[in-house]
C-alpha cells in the first residue's frame, strides 16, 4: 500500500498509470475525470486542495490527489522495489 496523500492509501498493484496534473491539464484527462465523477467512479482524496495528480486503476476507478504525480510514482516504485527485495530474501 502506498500513501497517496493525507493518510489515504492505494494498492500499488492496481495502478495502471499516474498522470501529473500540476501544470499541463490535458483535455483527455479532464474528460476522463468528469466522466468518472458522473458515473460514480471518481475517488477524491484531495481533501479540498488543488488536484495535482490523477491515478488510473485496473478496476476503472480514477483517484484524484493533491500530491504530485512524480511523488506518487516514486512511492509506487519504492514499494515495488521493496516487494522484489523481500521476494529475493525469502525465495
Structure overview:
By secondary structure, this protein is of the alpha+beta class. The protein has one domain (2-90). The protein is 38% helix and 27% strand. It contains two helices and six strands, in the order E-E-E-H-E-E-E-H. It has helices at residues 27-39, 69-90; strands at 2-5, 8-10, 15-20, 42-44, 53-57, 62-65. A four-stranded mixed β-sheet has the order 3-5-6-4, with helices on both faces. Strands 1-2 form a two-stranded antiparallel ribbon. The protein starts with a strand and ends with a helix. 21% of the residues are buried.
Q: Helical region count?
A: 2
**How are strands sequenced across the largest beta sheet?**
3-5-6-4
Uncertain residue segments? none
pLDDT averaged over residues: 93
> What proportion strand?
25-35%
What is the helical fraction, as a range of percent?
25-40%
Principal-axis shape equals elongated
Q: Could you describe the largest sheet, including whether it forms a barrel?
A: 4 strands, mixed
Radius of gyration: 14 Å
